[in-house]
Design a protein that fits this description.
- By secondary structure, the protein is α/β, with parallel strands linked by helices.
- Helices cover 46% and strands 11% of the residues.
- It contains 20 helices and ten strands.
- The strands form two sheets. Strands 1, 2, 4, 5, 7, 8, 9 and 10 form an eight-stranded mixed β-sheet that branches.
- Helix 3 links the parallel strand 1 and strand 2.
- Helix 3 packs parallel to helix 4, helix 7 packs across helix 10 and helix 18 crosses helix 20.
- It starts with a helix and ends in a 10-residue tail after the last helix.
Length: 503
């Protein structure tokens, strides 16, 4: 029986391969060449965007379709309820976010927040979360879509880009994001050839000799969400002959240093390939393929820094006292029933389970590496700060009053469904990772995000250290399970084809 099934698979693949040549989706590059990829002093690093107050706040939004976008939205809603005054102004914790990084579904929330700031809370639910973004996509299962999947991907990027622009971004480019300065928005995709994260920053586009300022936000989000097979890779073109802007010294250093971390070395070598002409086209897929939290960009930036305080400036480093970084994880737990039987998994289920295992292992590793990087960075900061003379402190800080070189604390937390009540978490985990969900499920996930962050020890520890009021503890378990289960039945009643799993 095993041999018969194996032969059937081979025959099916061979038959599909005969039509692949007639079923091919091709995305055209949307980036433009430039002779000056880094105008002015903007380099796209944290030092360009962080304020010079004593707090650094970062948010990371994972992949996971609309459920990830809704979970992140719920976290933002709660942060907007927490007052954290600054320089005599009445502001909220959300107002003081410095960096937001997003992957796949989380990149939609990150980009919209980057464009509109806290005003995004007013209409993001209606404009995106309860809409059917899959209306712009081909999701029916047929021999034709199967052939296109084998040909590189069922969907091109144009349909999703147009839908995103019509409903959210209205043709906005990265020029608008860069002009806002704060927060810094980091959209993450995956470079298939180099097997590395691809981060939409001026520094990355400088390696391409391309103008990030003219690149559409919708195109970057589409690349971040380009699940392999469901989408053809998003394409960027390299223009190595159009600019002479030198690449940062850290790239050459990391590419040649055998002691450099594997991630920093791989990213550096990839950037050099963009510039040396060995890659004409960069093929991008869903950011979750290599980093579903979008944390590697900061990890690499810290490892590439040539100073104890990099990637921020010396002036920011002497003023910094508190770091809060919240990682919003909408990933799914183990799926399927095959662990209860002797047989299985097999076929598509085996492929999905293997992909999930690889992705989850990568996610855990990236989060662990990020926490370790922040811990070492904090130690390096303290040593450097304590080595400064009084005159240097006064020059960088404008005063020596209240100076304590060791007063740097960081709070990093992962917010996830599994931190809620078990029954609630189980039902939430069953929400599919699609770009179309019933309104009841959307609202349940939003509430879960608000509840999870309000009770999170990282947030509470940060607020205590700042002398700020705590959010009230959540007394209820959120929406009743029966409401969520009814929404799940409603979603299951729809024709779900292809089982697109967005991570």
């Amino acid at each position: 029986m095993v041999f018969v099934r194996f032969v059937r698979v081979l025959v099916s693949l061979a038959f599909a391969a005969t039509v692949v040549g007639c079923a091919h989706v091709q995305n055209l590059p949307a980036n433009q060449p430039t002779a000056q990829p880094l105008p002015g002093a903007v380099t796209g690093g944290p030092a360009d965007y962080l304020s010079e107050d004593d707090v650094m706040v970062g948010l990371a939004f994972s992949g996971g379709g609309t459920r990830a976008a809704a979970f992140s939205f719920g976290v933002m809603k709660e942060l907007d309820r927490i007052p954290l005054p600054f320089a005599g102004h009445r502001v909220t914790l959300l107002d003081r976010v410095d960096i937001v990084t997003g992957v796949s579904g989380g990149s939609v929330t990150a980009a919209y927040f980057g464009l509109k700031g806290p005003r995004a809370l007013a209409d993001f639910r209606e404009r995106f979360l309860v809409q059917d973004a899959e209306a712009a996509l081909e999701t029916t299962l047929s021999f034709g879509t199967l052939a296109r999947a084998f040909g590189g991907g069922v969907n091109g990027d144009v349909g999703l880009r147009r839908w995103l622009d019509a409903n959210l971004f209205h043709g906005a480019t990265f020029g608008t994001l860069l002009a806002r300065k704060r927060p810094q928005v980091v959209i993450n995709a995956s470079d298939l050839y180099n097997r590395t994260p691809f981060v939409f920053t001026p520094e990355t586009f400088a390696a391409l000799c391309s103008d990030l300022g003219k690149y559409p936000v919708s195109a970057a989000v589409a690349a971040s969400a380009a699940v392999p097979l469901a989408f053809a890779p998003v394409v960027l073109e390299t223009y190595p002959d159009t600019c002479r802007t030198p690449l940062p010294a850290w790239m050459l250093r990391a590419s040649e240093d055998p002691q450099a971390s594997p991630m920093a070395q791989a990213v550096a070598r990839g950037m050099l390939r963009y510039r040396d002409g060995s890659m004409r086209y960069v093929k991008l897929v869903d950011g979750g393929v290599v980093d579903n939290f979008g944390l590697s960009s900061f990890t690499v930036a810290r490892e590439a820094a040539a100073t104890p305080y990099g990637p921020i400036s010396a002036r920011q480093a002497v003023k910094l006292r508190r770091i809060l970084f919240i990682v919003v994880d909408a990933g799914q737990g183990p799926q399927g029933t095959w662990a209860k039987t002797l047989d299985g998994p097999g076929g598509i289920e085996l492929i999905a389970a293997s992909a999930d295992a690889a992705l989850d292992a990568s996610v855990r590793a990236s989060y662990t590496a990020f926490r370790a990087t922040l811990s070492r960075w904090r130690d390096d900061l303290v040593r450097w700060r304590c080595s400064l003379s009084s005159s240097e402190v006064a020059r960088l800080r404008d005063t020596t009053a209240g100076w304590n070189c060791r007063d740097v604390e960081w709070f990093v937390g992962r917010v996830a469904f599994d931190q809620l009540e078990p029954a609630r978490a189980k039902v939430l985990d069953a929400v599919p990772t699609r770009f179309r969900l019933p309104a009841a499920q959307v609202d349940a996930v939003i509430d879960a995000g608000s509840d999870a962050i309000a009770r999170h020890p990282a947030l509470r520890g940060f607020l205590t250290s700042m002398g700020a009021p705590q959010p009230p503890r959540i007394a209820s378990a959120g929406p009743a399970a029966t409401v969520l289960e009814a929404a799940a039945l409603e979603a299951a009643a729809d024709e779900v084809v292809g089982s697109i799993r967005r991570r």
